[in-house]
Write a structure and sequence with these properties.
single chain; 245 residues; mainly alpha
Amino acid sequence: MDESERDDIRRAPWTVRDMVFGGLAGLGLFGLGLVLASVLVLLGQTVAPTLPSPAVLMPMVFALEAMLILPAWWWGPRKYGGGWQSLGFRVPPALKTLAVFGVGLVVILLINVAWGAIQQDLGLEGQPNVLPLFGEGIRGLLVALFLGGVVAPIAEEVFFRGFLYAGMRDRWGMIWGLVVSSVIFSVVHVVPGVLLPIALIGVVLALAYEMTDSLWLPIALHSALNSLAFIGTYIAQSNPELLGG
């Protein structure tokens, strides 16, 4: 593949209008999924009243994040061609990818540590602990790792980096693409106390995509971040003495 062919595949031909429609469709599909999940939970309670609603609803909500892939594909490669490669599923350079992964993960962890200290000083609300909502014990952890560590990172990176960031970058330039796509990524997580760190993490993920020209690296970083959070929470809950509890 020559340089011009690589540039054609990398270029995001979808327009601002496509991104607006794709964003609204993504929110609509996700909202519809939440409604359907709630209905199923209510039906489940009728059949089995002892069934805890959150334990059913949370895995369904995470699984429904996969729907974000649909509008990205519909207003992206389905409309303009280029296949999944146009959304970033391209083979990255191995050594550069490993180096950027290491640096990116350290930066993301530093962001979390720094913001954790700021939260304590300012008394800000952090992200809620959702691990118990996936179920109890190791089984709940495995469900969380699959849905939050595999499904969610793939769907979110396709939508926010492969579709939104790439489209904004090609329309408005890299800086505005980084800023706007990361702010949107942060806002949809709907926890006011962590809007800034999530936006900064979104910038890191977009830069990882930009530096390797592949969506696989931000997916790996996103997966590592979520998985480490779940595993750390599980260890802390299983061994409260580690925290002096």
